Amino acid sequence: MMPIHAPMPGRLAVCSWSLQARDQHELIERLVRTGIRNVQLALDPLRETPAAWDGIESLLARNNITVISGMLGCVGEDYTTLESIKRTGGIAPDATWAENLANFREGAAIASRLGLKLVTFHAGFLPRKTDAGFPVMKERLETLASLFAERKIALGLETGQETAGELAELMRELADGKNNNIGVNFDPGNMILYGKGDPVAALRALAPWLRQIHIKDARHAKTPGAWGEEVPAGRGDVDWAHFFETLRELGYGGDFAIEREAGMQRVEDIREGREFLGKFV
């Protein structure tokens, strides 16, 4: 194990969707129980059920809670199997692109109202540069980049549904087109869940574009082609000491958001993760 030095800079937050809150009051109550006062906020509920989230800005302020970034989902995503999410994930499907674009436009307005500087999302399984679908994906990402750039908001593409090399290839293409407000929201657990490579090696490959880190842990799939198993931070196959030492070498100074998308005791698991991460963040 590599030596652990002083904790890294950057805020430690909780992904709001991990807490499965039905409204703003339930979100605040569960967030306070985690012992963390920073949140990455899912923006779709504010669009879909505005009455349940009306006044969220003032409620967050009264409880001394900071929103570090936003998150947007896409229409019709089916996570039942790796094959089903490959077909339905992100902005790749033609059938849902128009609706996704409209939702992202509203999401950008909400993020701007909240004063956010970063919004993350899954683009879907990315085609290689030589694939027929690559120009369409690139064009759609450029459209979203422009939409958010108008409001001075950066985008972060979630890792995991492709290898680091494939994502880096796309990022270089986008940079050539001067779409520099698109970066990477790095999730080491996703790299394991999707079977897309070693998280630390992927971290190095994507270093130029790091915008935010998700703290999520997982165990490798027992059967090829199946999902890995998500577990609380510190119980899985992510080598966290090596991971944070690498971040330190890379000079990363951004934020960290604990994400827990499985299990029936989310608050307890996040508290466990927070305690585990104390020596790092």
Describe the structure.
The protein is of the alpha/beta class and 281 residues long. It has one domain (12-277): TIM Barrel (Alpha-Beta Barrel), CATH 3.20.20.150. Helix content is 42%, strand content 16%. It has twelve helices and ten strands. It has an eight-stranded parallel β-barrel with strand order 1-2-3-4-5-6-7-10. Strands 8-9 form a two-stranded antiparallel ribbon. α8 (164-176) links the parallel β5 (154-158) and β6. The radius of gyration is 18 Å and the shape is globular. The mean pLDDT is 94.
**Helicity, in percent?**
40-55%
Approximately what portion of the residues adopt beta-strand conformation? 15-25%
Are there runs of 5+ residues with pLDDT below 50, and where? none
What is the CATH T-level topology? TIM Barrel
Globally, the shape reads globular
